[in-house]
Write a structure and sequence with these properties.
This protein has 6 helices and 7 strands. With about 230 residues, it is an alpha/beta fold.
Length: about 230
């Protein structure tokens, strides 16, 4: 084998190994749930499965996509609050904690429950892009969409609930132009979940519990208005 070919192959292997190492580091550098959030997650039905179910005696069913690189249990307390208010909530765990790797994972739950014809999709942050894509591709499946610190990828005439926080320094607010937004005064990006502070985020002047309660109230009101 010619030396330049051998050197090229060695260089390629090195690049691939470095790339793999960077990928492994990136996907494992996640936002982790607080102990309280993890405890709430453990109360779900089959919490170790890709979809953790917080079941209630209701016909309203919400499927939730976590934010990018945020571990699913970080949203368990919001799911638990929905359950307490009579809403069935299903929290989806994504491959590598990134919805982009399985944007239609909600279909797994839907196919297991063919008797249910109406669902509501919800998501936070980067997961919102994949949730909007799923919502747009299946207009007959989803009655509504809730985006927390996220935005639709394109204009839509469908009823979408967008909730954002005034102290959020992560969200690109320009992407919200042209959409109706419900603003939580004093909230920030990370407090739509329950995983502590997030790099680059603003400082919240309200508690995580207060932001979660306001988020819950807006969601419940939205659900009541859906057909």
């Amino acid at each position: 084998m010619k030396k330049w070919i051998k050197r090229g192959l060695i260089a390629l292997v090195v690049v691939l190994l470095v790339g793999a190492g960077v990928f492994v580091w990136y996907v494992n550098d996640t936002e982790k749930p607080t102990p309280a959030a993890q405890a709430a997650y453990e109360t779900a039905t089959l919490p170790s499965d890709p979809i953790a179910a917080f079941k209630a005696d209701s016909t309203v069913r919400v499927l939730f996509y976590p934010g990018g690189k945020v571990e699913a249990p970080a949203y368990a307390r919001l799911m638990k609050d929905l359950q307490t208010n009579g809403i069935n909530a299903f929290l989806v765990t994504m491959p590598f904690n990134l919805a982009v790797f399985d944007a239609d994972r909600a279909q797994d739950m839907i196919k297991l429950n063919p008797q249910i014809t109406t669902w509501i999709l919800a998501s936070h942050s980067l997961g919102g892009a994949m949730a909007f894509d799923e919502f747009s591709k299946h207009p007959d499946t989803y009655a509504g969409l809730v985006l927390l610190a996220a935005y639709p990828l394109s204009p839509t005439d469908r009823d979408v609930l967008i909730i954002a926080a005034t102290n959020d320094k992560v969200l690109d607010r320009a992407k919200l132009d042209g959409f109706e937004v419900n603003w939580i005064q004093g909230g920030n990006h990370a407090q739509f979940g329950d995983y502590g502070d997030q790099a680059g985020d603003g400082v919240a002047t309200i508690s995580e519990a207060e932001q979660r309660q306001q988020t819950l109230d807006l969601m419940l009101d939205y659900f009541q208005q859906l057909p």
